Amino acid sequence: MEGSEVATHRVNKSGKAAPPFTRILNDPLQDERLSFKARGLLAYMLSKPDNFRFYIDELVRHTTEGKDSIRAGMKELEQLGYIHRYPVKNERGKIMSWELDIYESPSLRPESGFPVVENPTLITNDNIITNDKRLNKYLSLEIEDNPYIKTYLKYFSQKKNKQHMRVTTDQYGWIMNQIEHLKSSDIPIKQWEDQVRDHFEKLPAKNNGNIIAFLHASHRRFDVGIHDQF
């Protein structure tokens, strides 16, 4: 109504008596390319544990939307890089089921390692050809002597039998800032290693194991807020 005042009433999320809640980046919820249906669907999926499996029939049971509506929302999220759908095949190559990887930000997608841009990026022999100057510099985490990084890379190598994917300079800075934030919150290396080990023991085979995704779950694994959203 014109001239009326609007008040927002929020649940108290601080203190020991705080109810369960989910911390989500503002970016996907304010992504104007997505319908409100797709944003709500993504928020619901991000409220579930990292190893939670999603099925259309199960999602329908928790909403007033029908299957076609859910599929349309999923298609929006897939087209913009928020989810990745892939087949699970048996030894004969027959598709047995379909699984989803959920990304709070398209920048976490293993196919790119950086945010989706209008001008597509071509990667040939590790050389980046792109119109986006932000993406011209990549770094290997192998050069870092930080014990937290080295511990993560150890378990990554054991699980994936390869080196961790390179990251952009912006991603590298965010990773190091988040680790320093955890250290300043008195998260010891032993607790870090326990959580890293648990992470890789439960990691689906198709998940690329990017450390950025692991650090985005800091608030759940270490009860410490994210230092700075990337």
Automatic annotation (TrEMBL):
<protein>
    <recommendedName>
        <fullName>Helix-turn-helix domain-containing protein</fullName>
    </recommendedName>
</protein>
<dbReference type="InterPro" id="IPR036390">
    <property type="entry name" value="WH_DNA-bd_sf"/>
</dbReference>
<feature type="region of interest" description="Disordered">
    <location>
        <begin position="1"/>
        <end position="22"/>
    </location>
</feature>
